[in-house]
Amino acid sequence: MVTGHVDERVESGDAVEHVDVVVVGAGLSGVGAGYRLQTECPGRSYVILEARDSIGGTWDLFRYPGIRSDSDMFTLGYPFEPWRAAKAIADGPSILSYVRETATKYGVDRRIRFNSKVVAADWSSDDARWTITVEHPDSPTSTVTCDFIYCCAGYYDYDQGYAPDLPGIEEFTGQVVHPQFWPEDLDYAGKRVVVIGSGATAVTLVPAMAEGDNAAEHVTMLQRSPTWITALPGQDAIADRVRRHLPAPIAHQLVRMKNVVMVTGFYQLCRRRPELAKKLLLGATTRILGDPDLVKEHFTPSYDPWDQRLCIVPDADFFKAMKRGVADVVTDRIERFMAEGIQLRSGRVLDADIVVTATGLQLQLFGGVRPTVDRSAVEVSEQFVWRGAMVTGLPNFAYCVGYTNASWTLRADLTSRLVCKVLNHLRDEDLASVVPVAEPGLTERPLLDLSSGYIQRSIADLPRQGDHGVWRVRQNYLIDVTTTMRTNLAKTLHGTPRAAVRRGGPVDEPAGQRPEKAAV
Asked: Taking the CB of the first residue and of the last residue of the chain, which one, N or C, has fewer CB atoms within 10 A?
């Protein structure tokens, strides 16, 4: 398998390493990007720069009890590498093993450089090249140049989670833990635990900490308001039957498409007929818990389904823990912390030995890097997104973000294929660079339409989407998969011919004929 090469070029008297493509991040998306680059752009050299010391990204970072995906693995997994395990909704360690095994199987792991954190990236219009500054924990900062950057670093801050104001937290004599930084030696056996939050992390932690040999005495989920939660089987019976009778690659694709259609259909139902969706969700929860009053108080949100991301609990484990009495939910607001626990606005006190602040993430675009063009800052919040992958004002730059209403990898893999299409377009048309240029009069819309707190806290800092065509960021894989790869790149991307660029300096041309620099 040809994976490209890393060569050395001499510029300005110094040896500077240069590769065709730099991928930022060696998580689920970065490994998938490496595979696509190898198979669809075999002549391109590439390297994956990973800030941490291992493969896996999110699935290596998060180590809290019960960590799992809330998407099925037939859609969260790669389309080119079948998911073979029994569980359709898999635990974190299984997902991590799958990512690492895939990286090894296709040789992507040999292209990863660990402990290499990208901290700056500057585009030179004269050279049509990015200069990337890389920090290492135990060695001097290094520099690498590339023709194209593909950022697969996710969308949240790895160094810090969201920390809301918790009055009196310093008075609490117990232990406070954030799921993003779970202590390996945390012993919660026989202790009283309060989990603050009601999102995917909270509903995962509650049953995991309430069961098993190391089970807590009792786990309480403290929420300000209810979240839409629904139970799904952890194992896909249809997938199991299909996999028994068909080769793994074919079975994987069939089950993948089946799940895409089901998830898309339910999402559309939620958006088009929210009252019917509410009835279905509440009815299912009531059947599991057997207590309409409990469902009304703690599991009936004030917003419509999919105004925020829907929480999935496999095999109803969260609800079953409540029915067994080892866990409960309290809907109230924090007045203040006390030495022995949390005082609520209702006057009730929740005694606690351990408080877990499952209060959410901090969004961070491009892995925290703020790209510059000709050493000038680009105000990303004023730019438009093209095909959900490239940004106006940033030449030869793409980023990977998954769907908010479906599996991350569905869009991630589609974006990687689109990046390869763009790279091949550069080669075929003998272009040094391409950059999307917004149409005149393009109507501006927020990039994401969820009302979730972690999105609303950062929405003003994100680039915008338009209202039509390549400028609209759809949350619909069935539409995207039929349109993205058919995009007319010459029509929607502004290209600079390679002949107009001389590496190491501008081309000497008559006045008025020098190619324009990328619009910032």
From this structure: N
Q: Any idea what the CATH number is for the domain that residue 414 is in?
A: 3.50.50.60
**Cα(79)–Cα(82) distance, rounded to whole angstroms?**
7
Same-domain check for residues 39 and 174: no
CA–CA dist 331, 181 (Å, integer): 25
Question: For 367, left (φ over 0), alpha (ψ -120 to 50), or beta?
Answer: left
Half-sphere exposure for 520 (CA within 13 Å, toward CB): 14
368 and 352 share a domain?
no
33/155 same-domain check = yes
pLDDT, tens only, 462-512: 889 899 999 999 889 999 999 999 999 999 999 999 988 865 444 433 333
Rg of the Cα trace of the chain? 25
Residue 442 domain boundaries: 15-159+362-506
Number of domains in the chain: 2
Greatest alpha-carbon span in the chain: 81
pLDDT digits 0-9 by tens, 416-440: 999 999 999 999 999 999 999 998 8
Long-range contacts of 506-512 (CB under 8 A, 24+ apart): 506/126
Q: Are 472 and 444 in contact (CB under 8 A)?
A: no
Q: pLDDT at residue 60 above 80?
A: yes
Structure-token match 């390679």, residue found:
498
- Round the average pLDDT of the chain to a whole number and report it: 90
Task: Compute CA distances 231 → 36, 73, 100, 284, whole Å.
Answer: 34, 16, 29, 8
Q: What whole-number distance in Å separates Cα of residue 422 and Cα of residue 433?
A: 10
- 483 and 390 within one domain: yes
**Residue 20 and residue 4 in contact, taking contact as beta carbons nearer than 8 Å:** yes
Instruction: In whole angstroms, give the CA distance from residue 192 to residue 350.
Output: 9
Query: Considering the domain boundaries, does residue 384 fall inside one?
Result: yes
